[in-house]
Each structure stands twice: as structure tokens, then as C-alpha cells.
Amino acid sequence: MTSVAEPPVTPFAGITTLELEITGKCQLSCSHCLSMSSPQATHGTMTPADWRQVIADAADLGIPRIQLIGGEPTVHPQWRGFAELALSLGLGVQIYSNLFNVAWSWWETFERDGVTLATSYYSDTPAEHDKITGRPGSYRRTRANIEEALRRGIPLYVGIVDVLDGQRVAEARAELSAMGVRQINTDRVRAVGRARLPGTKPTLDEMCGRCTRGRGAVLPDGSLTGCVLSRDFPAGNVRTTRLRDLFGGEEWADLSARIPAPRAACPPDDSGDCDPANTEACMPSFPDDDDEVS
């Protein structure tokens, strides 16, 4: 077992959630995917040992929670080991899965104390949902696994991203509510990854304002960024520099200074939310598991 020092009371650099994008591989190829993940993608250059070191460093820095994300995190052969390590070190773990494929044995991990589950949903009609994900049958399988998670009492967060003109976002939200989902948030598409128009450059103006402010992310190549959406603006790499030095370094401070502050109010077409499964519109923050989002 990894041994770490007693964590400080206040999280280092104010980071309360560290997103770990442990793979770029995914069974889906969503039209708006921020990481451009697909079945043809790879797990990246981070080794399992690298990820374990990052998790141990997060615990040492007093960061209370990690999120395993991708791609689809459950296609990484070591994802359960990463979750178990984090739990053993006292960290909360959120698994952000598309819930397309859930092996029966995985429910045991999802049901562990300290684990929450998050997923994305797009429509109440199979054709529209599957058009966005690029995978026939994804609506049926995701919905069935949402129902199973609810049946088991697993804390579940669902995000809806408005991707298509006329998309049945309100109807999808109503369907989820009728199923018993209580943590639902929506967001517009952000111009990152596949959603960025050809020939355009990435910009920090697309961020919600919370990147680096309470959160950070480590990508499959080891890059540290303000969140998974600010992936084009790395502030060092965990494969060459320890997490404490990165969060306390000039590159991180410079990135934080460049990201526009969260707005007190949002225009009608912008929820201000860069992580729709977890954060509320306009002033996003990770809710407690017991909070209800209407």
C-alpha cells in the first residue's frame, strides 16, 4: 500500500477535485467530444505507475476527490485499481462513464462508499441520442444502466449537452426526472475538440471560469490543465514534475490568471457550466452527494 503523509486540512492550491483522464479510448465517437475520443484512440503515454503516483500525490496534498474520466474510463484495464487506491487513501471517487457497457462485477465498485457515478444523456428518443454518440444502441444501453444504478441507490449525476438544433433537451430532462434522477444539469456545446470549427484556434473564452479554481485535470499524456476542457493550455506535466510543484508553479498561476472569472449571470444560451454532470449553471461548483439539482 502506498504510504503518504497526513493530508493538510485545506486542499493545496484550493483544488477540491482532480480530473484524471485516464484514457482517450471510448466505445462511442460523440460529435462534440472534447477529447476526440473513439474506439481507435489509445490510453496515452501515462503508465499505471504514473497514475498511481498522481493519486498518491493528490491525497498527500489534501485534495478530497478525484474523477476518473476519459474517453471512457472503464475501458482502461487498471481503472478499478485506481479507484481502490484512491479510496484506500481517503479520497472520494467519481467515475464519469458513458454507461454503454457495464460488466456485472463493476457494480460492486460503483456501490462502494465514497464512490459516485456520472454520465451523459442527450435525448428521450433513441435515434437522436444515438446520432450524437455515433453508436446505435447507446440510448438503450445507457438508459438501462441508469435504471440499474438508481435501483441500487448509487449516487448518480447526469449531464445533458445541447448539441443539435432542436434537440429534445427538455424532454430528456423530464425523462430522467421521471426515472428518479435528481442530479441533472445542462450545458451548451463548448468549442473544444470535435466541437471546434475547422481552422479555428482554441480559446480560454470558452471556459466556464472555474478551471484552476477548485479543479485541475491530468490528461493521458500527463499534461496538467485547469480542467479537461482547457486541454489546449497545459501548465506542465506530471511525468516530469510532481503535482505539488506544478500547482505551486508559475505556469499554473499564469494559466489561472488568464482564465476569465466566472460570471455572476449567464446569457440565455450559456449555462456557464463546463462540467454539466456535476456543476450548476452560472456559478459552477461540485454539489454534495445529498444536494438536489432541479
Short description:
Keywords: Iron, Iron-sulfur, Metal-binding, S-adenosyl-L-methionine. The chain has 294 residues and is α/β, with parallel strands linked by helices. It has helices at residues 48-60, 79-88, 106-110, 126-133, 138-151, 169-179, 243-247, 250-258, and strands at residues 17-21, 65-69, 92-96, 115-121, 156-162, 183-188, 215-218, 224-225.
What does this structure look like?
Strands 6-5-4-3-2-1-7-8 form an eight-stranded mixed beta sheet, with helices on one face. With 294 residues, it is α/β, with parallel strands linked by helices. The model is unreliable at 264-294 (pLDDT under 50). Helix 6 (169-179) links the parallel strand 5 (156-162) and strand 6. It has helices spanning 48-60, 79-88, 106-110, 126-133, 138-151, 169-179, 243-247, 250-258, and strands spanning 17-21, 65-69, 92-96, 115-121, 156-162, 183-188, 215-218, 224-225.
